[in-house]
Amino acid sequence: MHVERTERSIGELIDQISSAEIRLPEIQREYVWKPTQVAKLMDSIYRGYPFGSLLFWQTDDMPETRSMAVTGLETRPARPPLFLLDGQQRLTSLHRVFTDHPEAQIVFHVEGERFQNQSAATRRDSKWIKVHDVLDPEASMLRITKQMLDAGATLPDHEIERRLSKVKQLRNGRFAMEVLKGFPYDEVAEIFVRVNSGGRRLGTLDLAMATLSTRWTGVLAKLEQEADYWRSQGYGGIDVNFLSRALAGVVLGRGLSAYSHSRLRQAKDVELEQGWTVVQRGLRRLVPLLRSQLRLIRSEPLPSLVVLIPLVVLLGRPDEEPTDRDTINGILYWLLIATVRTRYSGSTDTRLSQDIQAAEKGAGAVRALLENLDVVHSRVEVTERALLGRTKESPYFFLSLLVAQLNDARDWWYGGEILPGVDSERGIEQHHIHPAAILVDDYEKTEINDLTNLVFISGKANKKIAGRSPVDYFPELSKDELAAHLVPLDESLWHPGAYRDFLAARRSLLARAMNDLLDRFRPGWLDAAVAVPSDSTTGFSLDLALYESPWEDGRMIFIAAGKGINWSGSARMADLENAIESARIAGLDSDLELAGESVPVRIAEDSVEVPIGPFLVVGSPEEWRSVLDRERASARPMSAIPEVPSVPWAGERTRFPVTNTE
Q: Is 5 exposed, middle or buried (0-12, 13-18, 19+ CB in 10 A)?
């Protein structure tokens, strides 16, 4: 065994990928880079900045492989391939740019010497040119230079040619390479895990997947086949990542951690086979329950599918086919409460460990799961106050869909199902009952987007509303059609001027329906006791508002309130987005200047934690991204920004899901 150190040009590596002389072993994760990252890589190479080294494995054996996210590959390499262990994101990105992949349309601005992804604006501006067009061996620098001058470029023609030539020379950039020779597969996988455990790291799920691949050849094919099956059943959320986490959870008997890969490496073949049987059997028992009892015929409405894993563990044992009503009810009751309480919004794998261990307790598993939620001696209740100010990012939005489903709500005017079957091309949609266009001058965005103003209807039905007030279009619908969607039938509430009263009335109807739903599945053996709020954040609120303009950095204002709390602060939107992107893409901790102090933005398992005033706001990177996109879509002008004091929070902090922000 030895390590060969060499180097190779980008052009040579691109050609080797195209000829299938560079391939991905099964242990590799999927391609995840975004166009912004690809553009930054091109910029680094252009400017002569370091752009990293590559790690390969050369072997006489042919390991299981996975496809690269590129096009136009040969099927039979002319010589034995190299297997790429580190550098997949960079090499895949470069191959995409060099071969004009539709998802890597990177353009270059000659005057500004900037790279970015193609957009409508760059298409209109002839000073932007596609990098692939410059890299084309047949491209004429003279012709492109003339094109730039005709577009109004003010640089001398020789300078334009020089800059274009630098782009052309990107192909000659050289990667340092290390090639592992003579190493067995299990050691290569261990090296892969170690390389990816530091710096620009893989998550615990990726590391577990890599280790499973070394222990069980062909596991990726098994996972992909199972994921394809569930996709065909409408449960596309049961993907390779979900199945990897579920399998690891069954084998380990707990959630993932930094040490999971070493424990998985010690697992025996029989443990892996038995674990996979448990996962498959558990899903084939659980999904029919969701379909028949909750009418949840697709997976998309579930805010997080992690909530299914303890139930897969519980139902996957050979003798655990649920037959009695109380067991079935207890399983569904736990799922609903865990979802509403955002059980896995922070410290996901710590809580998953608790729940997997509870799910393994045989006849007492359902009770143990409910004890983890602290609901065995209390009756969970959704209050109207708990729904106040909630939007579609709230887990209560999921409950609002379920109660509409179980109330047999249909699409207005057209009568279609609001949660269509697998064969339907129409996805789930929600639209404003009172259209935003008639409310925007009199109400804040949080009121307009309140979940009590959202109804599940098709885009076709929404076009029929065409911006009209309910007082104008409700008469076209029957009272039964409205009541099925829990719409108040008092006509005096249908006018825009009565909008807040309409929200209050519908909030009451929704809370009552949600409580009926929870009580419907509440096991009979649970003790009736003092009702407790169904959400630990009840009584607290965190309002976000973005202010920005084309010439000034945007600022995000935070306003926290509840139980004697009255705090506000602000941060630069760009800094907040960069911190979340660092967590989402690279898994890196960072810092954020907020309310006059530097606060840590940390990765905790698969969640991002940001201290904001009295709250430790937690959520997955995707949930954070969704909330930031929501605020950007409703940004206000910088001229309207209020004065916000910069007073750091000095007290204790309460955990607060980012999905509960308003």
A: exposed
